[in-house]
């Protein structure tokens, strides 16, 4: 009844006690809200390193092998580039010596040649004068060889000299269509001829060169020993120089005293050597290739080492960020 008389059934709470409850509620709610703040840094998830041990071991082995090869590549390629520099100097000297020999007057060959001396590098590209009669019945050919996009063969014909010795003359190139002698009567020079030729060193057999069949008159490379045995010649390679007057032309009844290269090719007359040094010299391209590869792999190795160091510093930054927000 006292409560009814006072106009309320609920006991009154003092103002002080209500303030205490409000402050305690405010403190309890503020701290969790502060902890739930999300960082604006977009961190990638950190690997725990708890993957399979076998996978990690294999990747580690492959990584070491790759790094080992990457370390070796700049060293090996730099060494090969330096070796090509030495080869370039050697080839330049060789070309210079050959050009000096070409400038000398031609020699008269002795009755009998010493194959070891005549086929040596000392007499390579030395001009000589030879006289004799071609044995077209013992003609041989080397090929196929391409000239200006056309297939053909090099013709090799024994040349009998008056003293009885026989020389192996590489007369020149003819197209495949004129391989049969009946299609090129102008190439079958009769009687004694005088030719200016080059002594050439015996070429080495290539790794993939195929030997010719005995008696077939066909050779895939310049096999001097086999051709000399088949033709009964001295084993010395002699190249005929380009001669526009070497065709079998009856000059009494012909207005043409000589032929052009186009006419020689059309009539099947062998196109001889140009009398120029034809050493293959690609060492400068190899120098650029090897040194370029050395520089490229060096930069690649430096970049890879830098990238390997980055994850460690990033991990440290992630850990520091996590401590600040604890």
From TrEMBL:
Subcellular location: Membrane; Mitochondrion inner membrane
A GO-annotated cellular component: mitochondrial inner membrane
Membrane topology, from the record: Multi-pass membrane protein
InterPro entries per UniProt: Surf1/Shy1 (IPR002994), Surf1/Surf4 (IPR045214)
GO biological process per UniProt: mitochondrial respiratory chain complex IV assembly
Domain of life from the UniProt record: Eukaryota
Transmembrane segments: 65-83, 284-305
UniProt keyword terms in alphabetical order: Membrane, Mitochondrion, Mitochondrion inner membrane, Transmembrane, Transmembrane helix
Annotated family: Belongs to the SURF1 family.
Primary role: Probably involved in the biogenesis of the COX complex.
PANTHER family in the record: SURFEIT LOCUS PROTEIN, SURFEIT LOCUS PROTEIN 1
Protein name as catalogued: SURF1-like protein
């Amino acid at each position: 009844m006292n409560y009814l008389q006072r106009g309320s059934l609920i006991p009154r709470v003092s103002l002080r006690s209500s303030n205490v409850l409000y402050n305690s509620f405010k403190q309890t709610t503020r701290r969790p809200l502060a902890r739930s703040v999300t960082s604006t840094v977009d961190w990638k998830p950190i690997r725990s390193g708890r993957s399979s041990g076998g996978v990690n071991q294999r990747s580690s082995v492959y990584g070491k092998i790759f790094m080992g090869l990457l370390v070796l590549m700049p060293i090996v390629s730099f060494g090969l580039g330096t070796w090509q520099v030495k080869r370039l100097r050697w080839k330049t000297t060789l070309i210079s010596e050959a050009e000096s020999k070409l400038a000398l007057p031609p020699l008269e060959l002795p009755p009998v040649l010493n194959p070891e001396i005549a086929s040596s590098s000392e007499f390579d590209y030395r001009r000589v004068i030879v006289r004799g009669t071609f044995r077209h019945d013992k003609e041989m050919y080397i090929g196929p060889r391409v000239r200006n996009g056309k297939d053909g063969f090099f013709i090799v014909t024994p040349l009998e000299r008056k003293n009885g010795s026989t020389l192996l003359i590489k007369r020149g190139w003819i197209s495949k269509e004129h391989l049969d002698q009946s299609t090129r009567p102008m190439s079958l020079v009769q009687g004694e001829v005088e030719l200016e030729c080059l002594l050439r060193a015996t070429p080495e057999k290539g790794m993939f060169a195929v030997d010719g069949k005995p008696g077939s008159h066909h050779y895939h490379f310049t096999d001097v020993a086999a051709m000399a045995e088949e033709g009964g010649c001295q084993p010395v390679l002699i190249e005929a120089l380009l001669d526009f007057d070497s065709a079998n032309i009856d000059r009494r009844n012909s207005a043409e005293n000589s032929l052009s290269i186009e006419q020689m090719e059309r009539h099947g007359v062998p196109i001889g050597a140009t009398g120029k040094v034809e050493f293959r010299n690609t060492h400068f391209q190899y120098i650029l290739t090897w040194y370029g590869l050395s520089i490229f792999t060096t930069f690649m190795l430096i970049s890879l080492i830098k990238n390997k160091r980055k994850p460690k510093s990033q991990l440290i930054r992630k850990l520091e960020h996590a401590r600040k927000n604890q």
